[in-house]
């Protein structure tokens, strides 16, 4: 067993320290955590540091290091992941422009009884986030409705906003077009439908418990939505096609292309945009995935250099000393992914960083790829949904700025029932699962 070289991890530590330090300084001056240091800049700096290092006892030329970095960045799974990112961006933007998101929200709220309005926000959020593949987008869509319910019923604003966050985080690690799902499945080389089924075993009980808690906390309210809830089932069809098709095992590339074409056809039919305008819409969606696509390539190259210099071997050597058996390995993967997410405040980036290490651990302890992908996605989503400096809670807090009662991201955390319960359910599932 190779002991590896702990100094090879310096590039990753440089990124984390830069990201956290700049974020803390920026936050103290009233900015958003980490906004002063774009993740891509931090990773490029870390990459430069990695190029300055060598394996223990060896001296490699710059060309050798460059070739190693390029092989890692150009890995088959990384390239496939980036392509899926691009297609997912085009689909999400097209279906939203065609009114799919608004119709889905209005349809869901229209069939939910008024006395369970907050539960309705959570349930609708679950569907929207699973369909759209974006937790932040779901929060932006549902926050105004949650705020309105709070103002008209007197239900605490943090609880109402928390319900929207809970629904958003449900689909964050389940959606077939979520960047976290794409990253988790590609780093572990497993099918999305298999990972979805693995996740669903944990997510469904957590969602049911969350719905019950929200019902108990808000029972007795007499809120009724007076605004017109216009929707069209046809506009929701692209979401259903992608979701059902993915579960049925159809190729994700073909599904995303089909869903995009269908969304554009629906948008043109209803006069939402023209064919020429649809190209711009798809372009905006693809550009929205630019950051995570480039970051994925840079991180893959960085991890390849860290592995060459012995950093991955050192992590695995020390993890093996702490891990005892298959269950311990799964908890180790959960802890690793959680720690990286808390450090980066971005669950997709956390998965891209932790994925290769998790893959080595899972191979060592015979953990199925779908289980490893599920653990990565679940635990990064758990902490992403409760850290007050993450994009989700920051956006949720910002949405209340113009409301009668504004709340901070810290005030919302205690009402993020779903992420907390999801983490508990996942740990229980790991501990009591029978070895396969």
Concise synopsis of the structure shown:
The protein has helices at residues 10-28, 39-51, 62-73, 76-97, 100-110, 117-132, 135-153, 157-172, 179-188, 192-218, 233-248, 252-269, 275-287, 290-308, 311-322, 325-344, 347-364, 369-384, 391-399, 409-412, 417-432. The chain is mainly α and 436 residues long.
Provide keyphrases for this structure.
mainly alpha, 75% helix
Note down, in words, how this protein is organized.
By secondary structure, the chain is mainly alpha-helical. It has one domain. The chain contains 21 helices and no strands. Helix 6 (117-132) runs antiparallel to helix 7 (135-153), helix 7 (135-153) packs antiparallel against helix 8 and helix 10 (192-218) runs parallel beside helix 18 (369-384). The longest helix has 27 residues, at 192-218. The radius of gyration is 22 Å and the shape is globular.
What's the total number of strands?
0
Helix proportion: over 70%
Number of helices: 21
Q: Between the first and last Cα atoms, what is the distance in angstroms?
A: 26 Å
Low-confidence stretches: none
Mean pLDDT: 86
Shape field: globular
The ordered string of helix (H) and strand (E) elements is HHHHHHHHHHHHHHHHHHHHH
Q: Please outline the major beta sheet.
A: none
What is the SS-derived class?
mainly alpha
For the record, the count of structural domains works out to 1
List the helices and strands and how they pair.
Elements: H1 10-28, H2 39-51, H3 62-73, H4 76-97, H5 100-110, H6 117-132, H7 135-153, H8 157-172, H9 179-188, H10 192-218, H11 233-248, H12 252-269, H13 275-287, H14 290-308, H15 311-322, H16 325-344, H17 347-364, H18 369-384, H19 391-399, H20 409-412, H21 417-432
